[in-house]
Write a structure and sequence with these properties.
The protein has helices spanning 2-29, 47-58, 64-67, 99-135, 139-151, 167-180, 184-200, 204-220, 228-239, 245-264, 268-279, 284-299, 306-322, 326-336, 346-363, 366-375, 384-401, 443-463. The chain is an all-alpha fold. α12 runs antiparallel to α13 (306-322), α15 packs antiparallel against α16 (366-375) and α16 (366-375) runs antiparallel to α17 (384-401).
């Protein structure tokens, strides 16, 4: 009872301070623009624990509503999210919220949008439209801009940002607001009007941005006469002119947009070409990701381009290895290995197993290295020196793996003793007479008699 009384006193203190803050803000911004949101309405006493118990009895909000907002966390927070989420409460997320609380939160957002956000956006759009119409629209302004553009020298690209009060920046801001509100046709008109000024400057970065937004508007509001990829390719060409890392990242982004659109409409081969176009100027890790995505796009074609996809995966493996991502490189090579059978593509298969064996050694995978070195033993078409090198690598892999006994999958050659032919290239081939003593039954005696016969023959020839 004492803890419940303390919790209720804390709740009253927080509520009184919230009302005081609401009164202060209402005096500054007006009563219509300020409101307060009350939660845990199911129980006014006992805090959140009692509220959760009351909601459980009356019917809580489904937990899936809140679980959908919690995305997976990359180790180390590499994707912009925190390194780890806070632990969930015992009852789960949102279990103390009742349907009335959710309705109150929805009503608060609705009132904010209807009373504050949308009126402010409409007012800003009206001011920007009036400013742009005065400076850029109309026949007089078009002729003036055309005359100045013909008389001036374009010069080198100027990758500078326009100040917020300039007409170029206001046109872009007006187009972005129209895009935000879903007025795509009006947004395309503003982007095209602004793109003319950016191209005449010339300002490659701003012009590419306008073309990219025209392409996105064409995707969201498709028209029979417009192809979004045309505008996205134009944006890629001008983003590529921007110096530094930012231009490279922007050009990659616009090609990924083009590839996503092409894949969505079933043009997988074109999506692969877009991803290939984006990877050339990228860093090793990003280029490998783009090449791998291009390979998977080729596999979705009808019919699939398996051989070309395998080639892209090999290139992705090379880029992954350059980026020190050896596991991803091995993953790419392992997907390619079944596509190149040893019978048809013998040299390519050997090259892949050779690379995989070396990378398994670098990664410390002794069993994987043994598997790939064993695949290299079928090399009868190679010179003896290369065969010996493969055999030495195989023996080293066996020693590193610690294998004792038969090796599964190792096919040893079979020797048929009935058809063995032994050829000699020493003095025995040129002697006209072979002493009967050389034909002993014991191999050791045969070797000793052969040596003695050779000595006797040499001494007799010297005495003669």
């Amino acid at each position: 009872m004492e803890s419940a009384a303390i919790s209720y006193a804390c709740f009253l203190d927080v509520f009184c301070r919230a009302l005081s803050n609401l009164a202060t803000l209402s005096n500054t911004y007006g009563t219509a623009n300020c409101s307060i949101l009350k939660l845990y309405s199911s129980s006014n006493k006992g805090g959140a624990g009692a509220a959760a118990a009351a909601v459980t009895a009356s019917g809580a909000v489904p937990a899936a509503v809140f679980q959908a907002c919690r995305s997976a966390v990359v180790p180390g927070g590499g994707a912009g999210e925190p390194e780890h989420w806070l632990p969930e409460p015992p009852g789960g997320l949102g279990q103390a919220l009742s349907p009335d609380d959710m309705a109150a939160a929805g009503q608060l957002l609705k009132n904010f949008c209807e009373r504050t956000l949308l009126p402010r956006l409409e007012e800003r759009i009206a001011r920007l439209n009036l400013s742009v119409s005065t400076a850029r629209k109309g026949l007089k302004n078009r002729l003036t801009r055309l005359w100045k553009g013909a008389a001036g020298d374009s010069g080198p690209p100027q990758d500078v940002s326009y100040p917020w009060h300039s007409v170029e920046a206001q046109m872009r801001c007006l187009a972005d607001l129209a895009f935000l509100l879903g007025q795509y046709e009006f947004a395309v008109q503003m982007y095209r009007l602004a793109a003319q000024d950016y191209l005449a400057a010339p300002n490659s970065k701003w012009y590419a941005g306008a073309e990219e937004m025209i392409g996105l508007c064409s995707i969201l509001a498709p028209s029979p006469s417009g192809d979004p990829v045309k505008y996205l390719n134009r944006a890629f060409e001008h983003y590529s002119k921007v110096r530094g890392r930012q231009g490279r990242m922007l050009s990659t982004r616009v090609m990924m947009d083009a590839a996503a659109y092409q894949a969505a409409v079933g043009r997988h081969f074109a999506a692969s070409m877009s991803l290939m176009r984006a990877h050339f100027d990228e860093e090793a890790a990003r280029a490998a990701l783009l090449l791998e995505a291009a390979a998977y796009a080729l596999l979705r074609c009808q019919p699939p381009s398996a051989r070309k996809a395998a080639f892209h995966l090999v290139l992705a493996g090379l880029r992954y290895h350059t980026a020190k991502q050896k596991r991803l490189a091995i993953h790419c090579y392992m997907q390619v290995t079944p596509a190149y059978s040893p019978g048809t593509w013998r040299h390519i298969s050997e090259h892949l197993h050779d690379i995989l064996g070396k990378q398994c050694v670098e990664l410390g995978d002794a069993e994987g290295c043994l598997k790939h070195c064993m695949a290299l033993l079928d090399c009868s078409h190679r010179p003896p020196a290369a065969q010996g090198q493969h055999l030495v690598r195989f023996l080293e892999a066996v020693k590193a793996a610690g294998v004792c006994g038969p090796i599964p999958g190792l096919h040893l050659p079979e020797v048929v003793t009935d058809t063995v032919l032994v050829k000699f290239a020493d003095q025995r081939c040129y002697q006209s007479y072979t002493p009967p003593a050389l034909l002993g039954s014991s191999p050791m005696a045969f070797a000793a008699n052969a040596a003695g016969a050779a000595v006797d023959g040499s001494s007799s020839s010297s005495s003669g």
